[in-house]
Structures are given as C-alpha cells and as structure tokens.
Amino acid sequence: MNANVITYDPQKTAPHETIANNRRVLLQCRPHGVPKREDFRIEVLPAPVPGQNEILLRTLYLSLDPYMRGRMSDEPSYAAPVPLGGVMEGGTVSRVERSNRDDFEAGDLVLGYGGWQDFSISNGVGLTRLDANIHKTSLALGVLGMPGFTAYMGLLDIGQPKKGETVVVAAATGAVGSVVGQIAKIRRCRAVGIAGGAEKCRFAVEELGFDECIDRHDRDLAKRLKLACPAGTAQRGFLILQSFICGLLDPNLGLRLKDP
Ligand SMILES: NC(=O)c1ccc[n+]([C@@H]2O[C@H](COP(=O)([O-])OP(=O)(O)OC[C@H]3O[C@@H](n4cnc5c(N)ncnc54)[C@H](OP(=O)(O)O)[C@@H]3O)[C@@H](O)[C@H]2O)c1
Predict the structure, then answer these.
(1) Is 173 in the pocket of ligand 1 (CB under 6 A)?
(2) Can you tell me which atom of ligand 1 is nearest the CA of 173?
(3) Does 171 contact ligand 1 (Cβ within 6 A)?
(4) Which domain holds residue 227?
(5) pTM passes above 0.85
C-alpha cells in the first residue's frame, strides 16, 4: 500500500486519529482551454501544525465548481487568481482536528475554503460552524450552500418570477439549475430546463420536476424552446447566471434574458 494514501473514512474516524500526510493539489501552469492533468501537481507533505490562535482542519468534502476555472486564469476578474504553485481554491466541509482557539474545539464541523488538500490551517475567519445533526454535512456545499443560495437569490430576488410564468433554466441539472427549477415549481411557475443529453433531460423532468427539458445539443434548440414556452401563458424566460448559452438563442425568440 502506498504510505502516502490516507485511507480513513471521514465519517467514522474520530478527531486526532490518523493525522498523517497532507495531499495538496497545486496549480502547476495556467491551462489553455479545458484544464489537463499536467496543469496540476500533487504534493504530499506532513500535515501542517496549527500555531497560536489557529486550528487544523481535515477536509471531509470538497466542492468542484465552475468558478475554479476562472481562478486558474490570470485574466482580469472579480477575484484574484490562484498563484502558480499555490493550492487550488475550493469550498470545503471540514472537521476541526486540533484547536488553539477558544471558539472552536476538536470535532466541530465547519464550512470554509480549505482548498484542494486533506488538511488546512485556519485562523477562524470566514468559517461557518455546521450543525452536526444535519442529514448530510455535504449539503452545506450544495443546496444549503453557495449553489443553493445563488439559485434562491438569482431566481427570487433578481428574476422575481410570477405565478404562471415560464422560467427557462440552462444547465438545468447542475448544482444551481436543479435548485432554480425546483424553486420555480414551488412558485407555481412552468419550469423549462436545458441540459446536455437525453439522460440529463429525463432526470430533470422525472426527478427534479421540470415540466419539460430540452437537449442543448438539439439542432432545433431555438424552435423547441419556443414550443416549450407557449404564447398565451404569461411568458417570460430567465436564464439565470448561465450566460454561456445566450449566444445560441434566436434573438427573435421573445425571451427576456437576465444575466446579473
Ligand atoms: N455568480 C455567482 O455567485 C454564481 C454562483 C454559483 C454558480 N454560478 C454560475 O452558475 C453556472 C452554473 O453553476 P453550477 O454550479 O450549477 O455548475 P455545474 O453544476 O457544474 O453545471 C455546469 C453545467 O453547465 C453546462 N455547460 C457546460 N458547458 C456548457 C456550454 N458550453 N454551453 C452550455 N452549457 C454548458 C453543463 O451542463 P449541460 O451539459 O447539462 O448543459 C454542465 O454540467 C456557472 O456559470 C457558474 O459559474 C454563479
């Protein structure tokens, strides 16, 4: 067995056990197009030791999100890029392993940005303590976390759809889109999804409750979208935070696009 592989079960291992090596995924070079394995490097070091007023966190769950592609690039952006040789950024659910702070103790579960690594050090800033009794702590990175919050605010605060209106959601089975569609249904809207492939479209309708879902690879996407948003109903479409698909749409479609 490779001694560098940490084989604990994060749900069963108690704090203080098996603090071993720290696997860190570093950004080796800035990717062109789709990131490749060679753009990253895995480094294994001894787990860091928390200093005064610091805590040692063990990553239980790491969320992989689209914004990470932006962090790999040094193009102008609203957020600083990950420096070359730096640990990739990422939202994490972690468990406090050792604490030199009064406000956290070993065993606490927290939401933070520990990055692509097994262990991280925190001074407590930006951490959210999680209720250990929630059904699955990984939900804090999904529907109860940033993607769920984005869906909620994007649809209800910015989109403000009204009962009976049609809400069109791109990347409908993704972390954000799947929640947008379900909230739209709760608000008595018609939910039309756009997703890549038949299986995703089936999932959107049968599992998530979308009224209809269109494969974005369909050559007649614009026509199918128009059919899915029948005139006569209070038609108003939103493509929430998924602006990459706007270029595919027929400008005569009559959908009101919002890209906050
Ligand atoms: N502003 C914010 O605070 C905020 C927060 C969260 C997310 N977002 C944005 O919201 C969007 C969705 O995020 P997410 O976390 O739900 O992502 P996700 O779960 O990773 O879903 C991404 C999906 O986008 C679709 N996609 C990929 N390339 C595409 C292309 N070229 N054309 C059309 N669709 C493509 C794919 O689904 P299909 O193959 O099924 O189409 C992919 O599965 C992203 O743009 C993300 O950056 C913004």
Answers:
(1) yes
(2) 40
(3) yes
(4) 146-253
(5) no
